[in-house]
Amino acid sequence: MKKKIKVVVLMGGKSPEHEVSVIGGSEVVKNLDAKRYLVSPVVISKTGSRWTLTDKKSLLALRDTLSLRGTGKEIVLAKSRALKGVSGVSSKGVDVVFVAMHGPFGEDGTVQGMLELSGIPYTGSGVLASAVGMDKIMFRKVMVSENISVPKFVTVKHGENFKHVHKVLKHPPYFVKPSDQGSSVGASIVKKEKDLGRALKLAHKYSGTALVDEYVKGIEVTCAVIGNERPIALPVIEIKPLKGEFFDYESKYTESGAEEIIPARIAKSLTKKIQDMAVKVYKAIGCRGFARIDFILKNKKDPVVLEINTIPGLTPMSLLPKAAKAAGISYPKLLDRIINHALSK
User: Which GO terms describe its biological process (predicted)?
Assistant: First the structure.
């Protein structure tokens, strides 16, 4: 009988996306094939100081996890045992860690560096790609150096005078967001100059530096990529927000928040162009395993890269599993591929 692979699924953490991470991590735990894997779910607290080992039943019994967002309240598990951080994980004799974390202290290279030091294989991109992918300013600089189209933008540090925004970008609308967050946390559209200060205040709540983009009007699309040395692009998804003006947090994580059309309602030649660009972005950053690249189609025909997600959402509402399904890859098979890529690094 073939020996089962020991997988620790790491979720939660010190990030505004804590709850989304737990939901995604739960979905991973639920869909990992019990015949192939021995699964140990580990939830990191919102402070980052407590690592809790739980079991599948306790984790999947959680309800209304998103309701805890912004409250500071920790998720309560029916069964739990404290671990001594990453050393507690390594003491379990783990074969691979499935990182189901998002945002700072999860998707930005910090956890990846810790696992590298411990010599534990893990899913997704390495330290450098994770750090660059999370830092939207550095990511944009890499894109510019690779001649990949991105929106015109300026940065505003916390407490800095922002008169230069108007000089560079001229008149609104602008799109304002923190420079190192995901899931559209702290993001907003500015339609009038008098509202820019309020938008920057919101962005600075989550980051010391805000990114102010020219507002590019067009069709929102996204393209996931999976693989290591020979990555492949999955079907392009068209996104039509229903709850907000853009694909914000609520649109992403609530039922009927957005209409997601697979494949996107665009020409085959444009689909191919987007997929090729997505793979180019993936390689330029040095990604491994999986990622998702977000675009806006300027004038409905010119792909402009907005950002990369080196650990895309893994919840039932998330785009990566939907794209994989459209490509004939079930959620369990997608997880198999991600883990295989981690073990073959």
Answer: cell wall organization; peptidoglycan biosynthetic process; regulation of cell shape
Closest C-alpha among 3, 4, 5, 1 to residue 342: 5
Give the whole-angstrom CA distance, residue 248 versus residue 230: 32
Examine the pLDDT at 278 and tell me if it is beyond 90.
yes
Mean pLDDT, the chain, whole residue set: 89
pLDDT at 170: 83
* Residue 64 marked as a ligand binder: no
Q: Is 294 annotated as a binding residue?
A: yes
CATH number of this structure's domain 153-214: 3.30.1490.20
User: Is 17 labeled as catalytic in the residue annotation?
Assistant: yes
Active-site position among 125, 130, 179, 183: 183
Q: Per-domain residue ranges for the chain?
A: 5-122, 133-150+217-343, 153-214
Q: Give catalytic status of residue 116 as yes or no.
A: no
The single residue of 15, 17, 26, 220 carrying the catalytic annotation is 17
| Superfamily in which the 133-150+217-343 domain is placed by CATH | ATP-grasp fold, B domain (3.30.470.20)
The question of whether 318 is a catalytic residue gets the answer yes
Cis amide linkage into residue 332, ω under 30° from 0: no
Q: For residue 137, which amino acid is it?
A: I
Is 307 annotated to bind ligand?
yes
Which one is catalytic: 40, 179, 188, 318? Answer: 318
pLDDT tens profile 199-247? 999 999 888 999 999 999 899 999 999 999 999 999 999 998 765 565 4
Angle at 164 between CA 203 and CA 189, to 5 degrees: 35
